[in-house]
Amino acid sequence: MTLAQIAAQVFGAVGILVFILLYQFNNMKSVLKAKMCMDVLWAAHYLLLGAYSGFATNMICLGRELVFFNNDKKPFNSKAWLWIFIAFNLISAILTRKGYYSVFPALAASLATVSFHQKNITVARIIGITNNILMFTYDIFVGSYMGLVGETLAFISVVIAIFRNARKSKNAA
After folding, report:
1. pLDDT at 172 over 70
2. Cα(121)–Cα(123) distance, rounded to whole angstroms?
């Protein structure tokens, strides 16, 4: 294993820690802060692996989270941002394409863009499951072992959060 591959795994391991906690927060501002940190870690991870679709998508996601975090201010409150980031993801998928699997990060990021834009944590968690499946598949193709571990753990975390909050809602009613 090269030094770059070892470094990639370290960035991925730290990204896993943030990823596990991401869906446990109960408000979108906290989720977005954690997501920004995670985007930087995973961008470094994929760059060091030479997985440029994953790198580009995570950099676009970092910009997306910055915009959505500030969407209570002009010019960040425009609905046009949703379509701008979806377009950026499409362009990145085309420019970094190595195989059909290269579109998975862009598709996952586009779905996440929709989920974060609408600000419903329950919908974000459900879309998170779909994104886990897409990124798990991508990670197989690019050799991201930490990505495989992270997606598995994040999937479990999302499911726990869904059931935990469903139980809270049922008890409150």
Report:
1. no
2. 6
Helices assigned H by DSSP within the chain:
3-22, 28-49, 52-69, 80-95, 103-118, 121-142, 145-172
Residues 6+ apart with CB under 8 A from 76: 67, 68, 70
- pTM (whole model) above 0.85: no
The C-alpha atoms of residue 135 and residue 27 are separated, in whole angstroms, by 24
Q: Are 40 and 62 in contact (CB under 8 A)?
A: yes
Cβ neighbourhood burial of 58 (10 Å; 0-12, 13-18, 19+)? buried
HSE-CB at 44 with a 13 A cutoff on CA atoms is 16
Supply the pLDDT for residue 85: 93
**What is each CA distance from 111 to 12, 20, 117, 148, in whole angstroms?**
22, 19, 10, 20
